Amino acid sequence: MLIVGAGGAMAATAAPAAHPAAKAPAAKAAPAAARSHRRGKVGELARLGGHPNLNGIWQVMNGANWDLEPHDAQQANADPAELGAIGAEPGGLGVVEGGTIPYLPAAVAQRDANHAAAPKADPEAACYLPGIPRATYMDHPFQIIQGANGDMLMAYEYDSANRTIYMQPTGEPPIDTWMGTSYGHWEGDTLVVTTLGQNGMSWLDRKGDYMQEGANKVVERFTLKDHDHLKYEATIEDPMTFSRPWKISMILYRHVEPNAELLDFRCVPFADLLVYGDVLKDDAKPK
Questions:
Q1: pTM for this one?
Q2: Residue 36 to residue 233: CA distance in whole angstroms
């Protein structure tokens, strides 16, 4: 389990295995008010160890988690008679450069099959880890924990997920995982993070866009525009799925509430009936 202190320090303790999607959960991050986000002078970026200070709780304000491409609002594709407008999908302007994801013809069929099987087949519904870049633009905030030097941590409210950004040259991950392995470095005032070794089991959005295991690579760029706005870009490569690398971009907004913090959303219990089906239905009924 990763423990995050008010000063951003990290320590590791053992965590028991659980659900197939489980991993060492991140402890609840310290309230934003307990951490220092010292502003620079007017017109200057706050800095830490010579680099822009990215510490804080961030969240998108877009519909990318529903569909990365431009899309209209539409009726829920599961239980619309029960959910009505509550379950409807909001429209979105899209975050893909050029508007369309450049799938290879052979990969389109799998994308369409994913869409037809959604939302039940979406790994998010089963509380599996979201992968990169999807973790950044889900409907939950995430926290960046940065020290003056050394590795960085990104902790996500969804599924209590987390990942370490190893501030070292890009290496070869020892094993493929849901979140992959992330390597970071600074290019001027931009944090560049390369993630390799994702297992290809996560989706990129609720529509069913996806990558495959084997040759996927995601390069993220985090650029602080001012104290409360962070430009986020991610270039996605997977020659088994896409005809060329493609890019998404969006703005991340800092939570500025004095009591801002990540709340618990350990969703494994919420997915039990979906994952285990009839095995648990009788036990889950009210007594």
A1: 0.84
A2: 26
For 74-115, write each residue's pLDDT tens digit. Answer: 988 888 888 889 889 999 999 999 999 999 999 999 999 999
The domain in which residue 136 lies consists of 2-284
Beta-sheet pairing, 56-59 with 246-254? antiparallel
Smallest Cα–Cα separation from 168: which of 154, 185, 180?
A: 185
Rg (CA), the chain: 19
Start-end of H helices in the chain: 80-83, 105-117, 272-276, 278-284
Q: How far apart are CA 117 and CA 115, in angstroms?
A: 5
Q: What are 265's two structure tokens?
A: 């959303």
Q: Are 144 and 55 in contact (CB under 8 A)?
A: yes
Sort strands 2-4 and 10-12 into parallel, antiparallel or unpaired.
Answer: antiparallel
Report whether 189 contacts 223 (CB < 8 A): yes
- Counted domains in the chain: 1
Instruction: Classify 265 as helix, strand or coil.
Output: strand
